[in-house]
Amino acid sequence: MERFDVVVIGAGPGGYVAAIRASQLGLRTAVVEREHLGGICLNWGCIPTKALLRSAEINHILHDLDAYGFSASDVHFDLDKIVERSRRIARRLTGGIKHLLKKNQVTVFDGTARLDGPGRVCVERDGAETVPLRARNLILATGARARTLPGIEPDGVRIWTYKEAMVPTAMPSSLLVIGSGAIGIEFASFYHDLGAEVTVLEILPQILPAEDAEIAAAARKIFEKRGIRILTEAALDSLEPQGEGLLGRAKLADGSHETLAVDRAILAVGIRGNVEGIGLEGTRAVLDGGHVVVDEWMQTGEPGLFAIGDLAGPPWLAHKASHEGVLCVERIAGVEGLHPLAAESIPGCTYSRPQIASVGLSEAAAREAGREVRVGRFPFLANGKALGQGESDGLVKTVFDAGTGELLGAHMLGSEVTELIQGFAVARNLETTEAELMHTVFPHPTLSEAMHEAVLDAYGRAIHY
Asked: Catalytic residue among 63, 99, 257, 444, which?
């Protein structure tokens, strides 16, 4: 039996970060991974999807060259090369994680881990058990997998999950995206920019349900103007093979039904934690709706057993998992001055065209919480940098507490807003008020000036709109 201070099960963005930080704190650490270092995010999610979306963005620009004073003929793309580029980037970063773990003296076990009593982990590889592990602290970071709908199971050929959608062997001429969260909207944007006819089906009244309603409505208007068809308050009754494609039947908001004939469909209806097969039934850990219940320090109901990332519930974001991993091991190590993670201070990003990003409370959530608010808005069509880039769609929206000036939330739609949102995230973390933001000097010409103007607008002081 090998003994450690910390054993982490799962080497995704939560697990490998937790392992590295634990080792930095002087804890003898091991991590067990059954598939790929970096987890879903690095291999099948965050990173390779951004590579795909970049290719789609370039394709859009190449077919809109006239707007920039250029012309070109015979513009086309090689789908195999687009996919291989994304896979190559994923492989490169997987190698980088291996190097980081080795550099930080984290012991890596290749295999499937299972809890085997308090502080004990058995690891199985190739059908045989390897050396058992023992540790005072065990961290579960097993991640999550795609949810499915009753009667509509992915077959990997016609009906895809995110994995199949990332490695298409041919471009479908028509595509049905079921679900309009970040994953669904990103794939809708990618395939539409490469020429597919895309229909998005959402059972709720609003696309991007986690976002501010005004931002989601503005995004929908832009997507529909660009040719993506969006059906909200629409339920998919059936989806069956027809020839080489699919035939679906959906109940629409007005009660009528519509037949949808498409080449392929993507299920993007959320995820559920990988809680099965890891030995939780022998512990006092509590499950709720497919995730493990934890306290503010990521502790489960079982002493010495922690859970982080997607396994511990929403928001299902890689950066949330990484932060939880650091917080968890610093708590284990007795680091002083720690603060629990506030979910409302975690930025959310959707990397479609245009991008969507937010942090904090939406306007509706702030009002529902009983806050009297001041709301500011500034459109990118009044921003010189956005106009120069040819990316004037979108806006910045700020929500302040009318009494204290606290920045309650910020919501953005437009070019590179996933990079800009961190400015507001830092502001919230520093408990910045409208006064500090108003007196911060923003460089010109930049997209960030729209952030400044949205703050000013909340107090009737906008200059450029």
From this structure: 444
The H helix count followed by the E strand count for the chain is: 13, 25
Separation of alpha carbons 397 and 382, rounded Å:
14
Which tokens in the block code for residue 127? 């059908």
Give the count of beta carbons closer than 10 Å to the beta carbon of residue 256: 8
pTM flag (> 0.90): yes
* 444 counts as catalytic: yes
Q: Which residue has the tokens 């006239």?
A: 66
**Pair type for strands 373-379 and 395-401:** antiparallel
Res 281: pLDDT: 93
DSSP SS3 for 421: helix
Q: Which residues of the chain have pLDDT under 50?
A: none
Can you list the alpha helix ranges (DSSP code H) found in 181-338? 182-193, 213-225, 318-333
pLDDT of residue 451: 98
Give 314-364 as a DSSP string. SS--HHHHHHHHHHHHHHHHT-SS-----GGGS-EEE-SSSEEEEEE--HH
d(CA 416, CA 356): 9
Which two tokens mark 286?
């509590």
Structure tokens at 23: 């080792």
Structure token digits, residue 367:
């009002």
Query: What Cα–Cα distance (Å) separates residue 380 from each residue in 207, 273, 389, 399?
Result: 21, 38, 11, 18
Round to whole Å and give the CA distance between 242 and 249: 12
Nearest-angstrom CA–CA distance, 414 and 391: 7
Cβ distance 190 to 177 under 8 Å?
no
> Hey, which residues does 229 pair with through a beta bridge?
199
Measured between alpha carbons, how far is 8 from 304 in angstroms, rounded to an integer? 12
How far is residue 13's CA from residue 416's CA, in Å, rounded to a whole number?
23
In tens, the pLDDT along 423-437 reads 999 999 999 999 999
pLDDT tens readout for residues 49-99: 999 999 999 999 999 999 999 999 999 999 999 999 999 999 999 999 999
Q: Cβ of 144: how many Cβ atoms within 10 Å?
A: 23
Tokens of 80: 């195999």
Name 2's bridge partners.
Answer: 133
How many residues does this entry show for the chain? 465
Strands (E), 37-119: 107-110, 112-115
Long-range contacts of 274-283 (CB under 8 A, 24+ apart): 274/142, 274/143, 274/144, 274/145, 274/310, 274/311, 275/142, 275/311, 277/112, 277/114, 278/9, 278/113, 278/114, 278/115, 278/140, 278/142, 279/114, 279/115, 279/116, 280/115, 282/115, 282/116, 282/117, 283/115
Per-residue pLDDT, 130: 83
